[in-house]
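Reopening this one. Same input as before:
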Amino acid sequence: MKAIARTEWPLALAAAGMALLLLGSCSAPPPPQPIRAPDLVPPPAPPPPAPLPRPTDWRDILPPPGTWRWAMADGRSTAHYVAADGAALASLTCDRAGGQVLLGRAGNASGQVAMGVSTTGAGHRPLLSNPQAGGSGWIVVAIPARDPVLDAMAFSRGRFLLDVAGQTPLALPSWPEVSRVIEDCR
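Same output, byte for byte:
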């Protein structure tokens, strides 16, 4: 190796510094900063479905989920239509002493209320509730045991409609429990 003369040192130092700078610039770039994920915003809830249009024909109204239950209650043949949650929605009770069938709908009224029964055989029959016939929480109409509307309810094609002023019409299935109460009263 050849010795570097003193006059060449500044040049040699400059060359060495340049080499170091070049070597430093050859290093790998710093790792990229992690990208922060955007805050997730839940999508807006879809609007509630539009209510179904009310059927124009009462025969298109479906009965609420539930079942008729028959029993002897206080010595009287009785059927209650009980919803899936266990609440009684309607009742038929034979009052043999009075010769009538009491048709009731759960609800409250301070006096007489317009009611109606629609069947496939007899059409619509207007009725008027009797405040003395029902207990608390019931709107009741007394129908003579031999009234043809009772037969129409029993033999209506699958259901009949109980309509009480101020309440949503209630379609009820015409199951054997309905006929049982009517027959027990005759």
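So the earlier flakiness isn't reproducible anymore. For the record, Strands lie at 66-73, 76-83, 88-95, 100-106, 114-119, 123-128, 138-144, 159-164, 170-173.
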